[in-house]
């Protein structure tokens, strides 16, 4: 609870200025306050959805009066409607937008929850027991928080049975079904439709960049892994592009500034293609996603001729960074173990395998919106 | 088939220049050609995936020799590997990137398949019979092509039974399950978790902008619609933002230049939030998506204070445009009818309804990547 010291109208009644007890201050526009007014005619009680359109707000909306009430709320009277509404001081604090830092962030910044990592994460890779997580308590809360924070986590003590991977998705969200199925087999096949279904090593990558929207979560569970090799490798691509920007900012700009193309046509009835940058930034420079996959990139047709040589230099540089030992975390999944990655952020790959024994993984896609929703609701209890 | 007139090396052997019989010419870099070389050691036979990493290409890759072969293919020898590969002339033509127009497109341009529309589409709204479409022939091809082109289409002759909507998704892709279920009921409810489940009119909108990734397709099917009112309205938001850009380019830039925020917390165990711009452009200015939804926008916390008033003016202007009669297509769904929209492009809404009778729709989400994949495979037969 942060209480308000004082409030006053701005000049020409275009908004208000609030000063909190911690001496922070923030201004709010009349139109913004009116649009977010927490009264039953603006926001539906129960579901909180807005009942008015933006054009239902008078174009000449203004502040008629503003004051701090005895209960600490901020009372605002809007003209010309002559409508009075009370705002929570905490809510105003949490949603203030009069923050100079909004205009000064460097391209590639991330939400505060994101912790970038390198190989130092290896001994501390987040891990939880499926038996504990399914209780829907603090263990699941911490596991989801770690997925949100690091973009990767392991789960152990899973049933060693085909399809159990979907039970992990059920803990927080919904399977994203694709042409590969609700879940898919990752093991050596004759005539594989995807190089994942061979014993070849796979350079670290994000999955399915040729899909749009890309699946934002990938899970890989282990049913058998008695081969020599076949270790899993994960790399924080948000860290990798930060390193790229430090070493060569103009290369970061190239990979963010032009769209790559990705295609998959490995089976007769599938032709997937997308056009998105390797480094995707929001309009405010926030790092939203990385797409990196040597198997499915190209043909690159959307980069101007005079940028192509430099673009390839940048791509090569990033490809070298993601293979540096100091960025890689390696582990070997055992039967009954699984790892999950944020597929917009964390690359995964594997060491080649061969010889006797067998390796049988299953994969599955899901999406982060449901994961973060579950995390937010568990946070109310355990945060 | 477009055959090649001549080929030659560029200076310093950094690439080649191809001249086709239509006198068009295009240059290709050595590194680009090497990365896309269609030989069995570069691209896996069968699934077409790339077997090499970009750093497996020598940094000093160059053209040792280039010539037109008797079969019309272009033979390229790469140094220092001394590797010779033959490229199809057609493939080079289709994938040439030496195109000056890449650098000169105005913000908000779209793929060539996209046809923007206004109310003139109403009498010509694409429609197909479910019975015909399920034959997986030319009718399905044309219907999917129309969805890709206009972002909206109707389907008729559906079974009037609960859940039949999923059979339409099965024609081309996969249901995107969400907290609303695999499909969901759209009818008047007591204590609705969403204003869609009331008799209120709904301003045209894209669905679930608070989800990330947003569902890229939405379907709505009709089981009963005997009320007064309840007509469906669709608007091409790609057209609407084009109008906005013509009338006020700086407003287009504001809505594309700053992220909006969207939230949904209508049920106890759901808290969805996203941060994406109303007008989403790729780094090359391509119009990728529009998010517009008065019910779930805000709190807007990511727009700097000194831009907020202008941002609201721009939002208000766009909200007025999408309600102009010349942009709206209206129809009333009958039982056994459905419409599909590209939820990144086409807004949908409804006129309020009340009185006797009832209105029962079902909704379902899916994704465009599978739809376009299906379209591409049907195109080979019917295009």
UniProtKB/TrEMBL annotation, chains A, B:
Q: Indicate the family of this protein.
A: Belongs to the gamma-BBH/TMLD family.
Instruction: Report the EC number(s), separated by commas if there are several.
Output: 1.14.11.1
Recorded GO molecular functions are:
gamma-butyrobetaine dioxygenase activity
Residue ranges constituting the Gamma-butyrobetaine hydroxylase-like N-terminal domain according to the UniProt record? 11-92
- A Pfam match is TauD
Which cofactors, by name?
Answer: L-ascorbate; Fe(2+)
Q: Does the keyword Secreted apply?
A: no
This protein's name = Gamma-butyrobetaine dioxygenase
- What range(s) does the TauD/TfdA-like domain occupy? 133-365
What are the transmembrane regions?
none
């Amino acid at each position: 609870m942060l209480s308000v010291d004082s409030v006053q109208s701005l000049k020409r009644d275009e908004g208000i200025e609030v000063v909190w007890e911690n001496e922070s201050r923030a201004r709010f526009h009349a139109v913004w306050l009116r649009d977010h007014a927490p009264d039953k005619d603006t926001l539906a009680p129960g579901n909180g959805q807005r009942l008015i359109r933006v054009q239902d707000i008078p174009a000449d909306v203004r502040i008629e009066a503003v004051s701090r009430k005895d209960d600490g709320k901020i009372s605002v009277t809007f003209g010309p409607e002559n409508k009075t509404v009370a705002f929570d001081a905490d809510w105003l604090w949490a949603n203030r937008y009069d923050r100079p830092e909004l205009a000064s962030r460097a391209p590639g910044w991330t939400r505060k929850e994101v912790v970038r990592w390198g190989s130092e994460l290896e001994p501390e890779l987040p891990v939880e027991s499926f038996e504990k997580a399914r209780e829907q308590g603090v263990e699941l809360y911490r596991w989801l928080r770690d997925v949100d924070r690091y973009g990767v986590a392991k789960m152990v003590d899973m049933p060693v049975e085909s399809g159990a991977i979907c039970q992990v998705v059920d803990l927080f969200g919904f399977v994203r079904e694709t042409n590969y199925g609700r879940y898919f087999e990752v093991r050596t096949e004759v005539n594989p439709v995807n190089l994942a279904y061979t014993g070849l090593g796979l350079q670290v990558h994000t999955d399915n960049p040729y899909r749009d929207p890309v699946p934002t979560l990938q899970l890989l569970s282990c049913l058998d892994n008695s081969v020599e090799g076949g270790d899993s490798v994960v790399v924080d691509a948000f860290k990798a592009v930060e390193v790229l920007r430090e070493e060569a900012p103009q290369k970061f700009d190239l990979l963010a500034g032009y769209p790559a193309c990705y295609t998959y046509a490995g089976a007769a009835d599938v032709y997937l293609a997308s056009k998105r940058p390797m480094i995707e930034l929001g309009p405010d420079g926030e790092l939203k996603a990385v797409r990196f996959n040597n198997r499915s990139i190209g043909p690159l047709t959307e980069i101007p001729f005079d940028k192509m040589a430099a673009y390839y230099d940048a791509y090569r540089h990033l490809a070298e960074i993601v293979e540096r030992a100091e960025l890689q975390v390696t582990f070997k999944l055992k039967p009954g173990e699984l790892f999950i990655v944020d597929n917009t952020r964390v690359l995964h790959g594997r060491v080649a395998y061969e010889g006797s024994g067998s390796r049988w993984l299953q994969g599955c896609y899901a999406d982060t919106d449901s994961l973060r929703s579950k995390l937010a609701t568990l946070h109310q209890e355990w945060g």
